[in-house]
Amino acid sequence: MKIVVIGGSGLIGTGVVAKLRSLGHDVMAASPSTGVNTITREGLAEALDHTDVVVDVANAPVWEDKAVLDFFETSGRNLLAAEAAAGVRHHVALSVVGTERLQESGYFRAKLAQEKLIRESGIPYTIVRATQFFEFVGGIAQEATRGEEIHVSPALIQPIWSGDVSAAVADAALAAPANGMVEVGGPEALPLDELIRRFVRITKDTRKVVPDVRARYFGIALNDQSLTTGKAARLGSVGYEDWLARQSA
Ligand SMILES: NC(=O)c1ccc[n+]([C@@H]2O[C@H](COP(=O)([O-])OP(=O)(O)OC[C@H]3O[C@@H](n4cnc5c(N)ncnc54)[C@H](OP(=O)(O)O)[C@@H]3O)[C@@H](O)[C@H]2O)c1
Fold this sequence. Notes:
Strand 4 (90-96), helix 4 (106-119) and strand 5 (125-130) form a beta-alpha-beta unit. The chain has one domain (2-248): 3-Layer(aba) Sandwich (Rossmann fold), CATH 3.40.50.720. Strands 2-1-3-4-5-9-12 form a 7-stranded parallel β-sheet, with helices on both faces. A 3-stranded mixed β-sheet has the order 6-7-11. With 249 residues, the chain is an alpha/beta fold. 37% of the residues lie in helices and 20% in strands. The chain has helices spanning 11-22, 44-48, 65-86, 106-119, 137-143, 162-174, 192-202, 240-248, and strands spanning 2-6, 26-30, 53-56, 90-96, 125-130, 145-146, 149-152, 156-157, 180-185, 190-191, 208-211, 234-235. It is built from 8 helices and 12 strands. The chain starts with a strand and ends with a helix. Bound molecules: NADP nicotinamide-adenine-dinucleotide phosphate. NADP nicotinamide-adenine-dinucleotide phosphate binds at residues 6-7, 9-13, 31-33, 37-39, 57-59, 61, 75, 94, 96, 111, 130, 132-133, 136.
């Protein structure tokens, strides 16, 4: 089976490509660094020639409201049109758990727009929605930093190891199209302030973590349902403590 992974050089894409190749599939890692660009369409039609499945795990280079919306809309339109022309049988995309609950943020408005294009494309599809990656925790802390303090909500978050996300996306690529959404999240949910506190402790970061129920997450007011999965979600294999221990080792 020929599978093209758009964003195949990224954090998730690298793992998806490796897993699918290890199972013997013909996998192309497609991204600007390998000459395939979903914005300019450079190399796109050629890449999709005789392709059965396309996996889209690309991310926008800039997260400013208009730029990120332009990226996911233009990339989605170009990619889905090229897939229709090439007769691709399954489109798999990675989105974020709770996207419709996080619409105060331009990034999540862009992800919802990406999902809408997929649902309306007529191409059989599976949208895998994942919670926040462990590898993204430092970015969350950075965005919430005010001077020497990190102000974060104590709402629950259910983060996941990127390797578990790559595995879930690869499995979706090999399964029949769900024509809907599947969720994947970490094995445990914990308060966001506690997540950040454990991270700064292990990285010997001197910033003080301040829990604040009014603190926003990338502009979004959180509750315990905002960043956690539903009951039917597939859960990751690696816990946060084990991942942190691996990082410090
Ligand atoms: N961060 C989180 O916690 C989280 C949670 C759930 C879901 N997600 C989703 O996970 C997805 C993947 O994230 P990631 O962290 O793996 O991303 P990443 O490491 O930043 O990689 C982004 C990939 O997109 C490619 N790309 C950028 N512009 C492109 C273009 N014009 N055409 C084709 N490819 C392009 C890059 O290619 P080059 O290397 O060649 O530039 C790279 O391979 C995103 O869609 C994100 O919304 C993230």
